[in-house]
Amino acid sequence: xxxxxxxxxxxxxxxxxxxxxxxxxxxxxxxxxxxxxxxxxxxxxxxxxxxxxxxxxxxxxxxxxxxxxxxxxxxxxxxxxxxxxxxxxxxxxxxxxxxxxxxxxxxxxxxxxxxxxxxxxxxxxxxxxxxxxxxxxxxxxxxxxxxxxxxxxxxxxxxxxxxxxxxxxxxxxxxxxxxxxxxxxxxxxxxxxxxxx
Length: 197
Fold this sequence. Notes:
This protein is mainly α. Helices cover 71% and strands 0% of the residues. Helix 1 packs antiparallel against helix 2, helix 3 packs parallel to helix 5 and helix 4 packs across helix 5. The longest helix has 32 residues. The termini are far apart.
């Protein structure tokens, strides 16, 4: 009979707090592994893990299992974690559905006519134009004719979607092309690519 089984037998016969403390201390490795699994699910924290462990341990102690107790407790914890994660995922999806059921006021739109916004838009357009001009004039950039036309038109549009609509191209094509371009992009030569992407 191992130490945990002896502590369990003593706890079940006497019901003393000291025997329960011994059982609780001997299951510390399972407790820390369980806490790690709950935290790594990104749906719970240490408090959730500890509450779940305590409830599961108290339920398992009601069962007449002495031999192989740690394996039995490990299985019960795995089942409790799965139930906990399912419940959290269900609650999260219900929260989104609940939010969709009501008329939530939309985010206030930015007034594009204020001097500050006009200034920032002009600055963004200037930076994008300089980056695009550097790209277009450099023969080593290796741009296809279609990509050259896209980059030449890029400073005139605030978003990639508007650029795609204006050129009759699907926006994912432009995103993929700019992503490919960013892999071989030389920031020292052309400037910050975030000015155009």
